[in-house]
Design brief:
The chain is an alpha/beta fold and 310 residues long. The protein contains twelve helices and eleven strands. It has helices at 3-15, 18-24, 29-43, 59-85, 106-115, 128-136, 183-187, 199-210, 224-231, 245-248, 282-293, 296-309, and strands at 91-97, 119-125, 142-146, 156-162, 165-170, 180-181, 191-193, 217-220, 238-241, 254-259, 269-274. The chain has a five-stranded mixed sheet with strand order 2-1-3-11-4, with helices on both faces. A four-stranded mixed sheet has the order 6-10-5-9. A two-stranded parallel sheet has the order 7-8. Helix 1 (3-15) packs across helix 2 (18-24), helix 1 crosses helix 4 and helix 2 crosses helix 3. The longest helix is centred in the first third of the chain and has 27 residues, at 59-85. The radius of gyration is 23 Å and the shape is elongated.
């Protein structure tokens, strides 16, 4: 049994297609199929439900897949540890982020890459559900997400900042000249918001409900790019996280206004999550060291105050 054969099995389970799995492993499809057949022969069990197309793994295949992911993760951790001992970390940091936290990822990845110049960062936008699955399957090393998300189970959490919410509204809007507005006032405006299946929107709905109102979103979109594209028209308002200012700033013709503040205990926290086994990874240790000195919370608060004063 070779590690390469385990890589073939993991790729096939991920891609669910022989040709795509072969391409992901940079081998021909016959080579991948031969490698998996050799693995089946070595273990003396069928791993793949063989047919004209990929039809899934056998129960034995699923068991081997779980072990294969862990073995390959241990291989990667060993390589990173040895590179660290030589004084030069190498490899790829695989980082996931929910879309609303993607806006601050560069506050971590930039100093990380400056410190570890031989490391490549692979950054993916993922749902919180996908984050848990990818962590459990050793497909990502760490993730940026809401730390109070009910989907997070059995992970270690490292807080980075707490979200603060603002009304982003046209300069000629009814509340643009105020220094602060209530959630009830914001609910009266024509709004563009994220959909309710996203954690950010559910958080906002809780704040609206606390003031006895429900926000109606004339437009719902699951990307921040599309949300800001609508705001640029000058017709719409939105409730945004202050962390989005780092990436998008304030569009021309718009201004931000404070929303009635929750106390610190009720502000949703965002941070890094890793699985308990990740403490053995030199890559994760390096990321957490950088995150500890990045000052994400202070950087975002300073940016917020600068925009409010302007």
């Amino acid at each position: 049994m070779l590690l390469r054969q385990l890589e073939y099995l993991v790729a096939l389970a991920r891609e669910e297609h022989f040709a795509r799995a072969a391409a992901a492993c940079f081998v021909s499809q016959p080579s991948l199929s031969a490698g998996i057949r050799k693995l089946e022969s070595d273990l003396d069990v069928p791993l793949v439900q063989h047919g004209a197309r990929f039809e899934g793994l056998t129960p034995e295949g699923e068991r081997v897949l779980r072990r294969a992911r862990r073995i390959l993760s241990e291989r990667d951790a060993l390589q990173q540890e040895l590179a660290e001992m030589r004084g030069q970390l190498t490899g790829t940091l695989r980082l996931g982020a929910i879309p609303t936290a993607m806006t601050v990822a560069s506050l971590l990845t930039t100093p990380f890459c400056e410190r570890h110049r031989q490391v490549t960062v692979g950054l993916e936008s993922l749902s919180s559900r996908d984050i848990m699955r990818r962590l459990a399957e050793f497909e990502i090393d760490a993730a940026l997400t809401y730390l109070d998300d009910e989907a997070l189970q059995g992970v270690r959490k490292f807080p980075l900042y707490e979200e603060r919410y603002l009304l982003l509204t046209p300069v000629d809007g009814p509340y643009a000249t105020q220094t602060e507005v209530s959630w009830a006032q914001a609910a009266k405006l024509p709004l563009v918001l994220l959909p309710r299946r996203m954690r950010n929107r559910r958080i906002l709905d809780e704040f609206f409900a606390a003031e006895g109102v429900a926000a109606f979103a004339a437009v719902e979109t699951d990307t921040l790019d599309a949300l800001y594209a609508h705001l640029a028209s000058g017709r719409w308002s939105s409730v945004i996280s202050h962390a989005w200012l780092h990436m998008f700033g304030i569009p021309d013709g718009m201004r931000v206004v404070r929303l009635g503040e929750a106390d610190d205990a009720h502000r949703p926290g965002v941070g890094l999550v890793v699985t308990p086994h990740a403490r053995e990874s030199a890559m994760v240790r390096a990321l957490l060291t950088v995150a500890g000195g990045a000052g994400v919370r202070d950087a975002l608060d300073t940016l917020l105050e600068a925009h409010l004063e302007s």
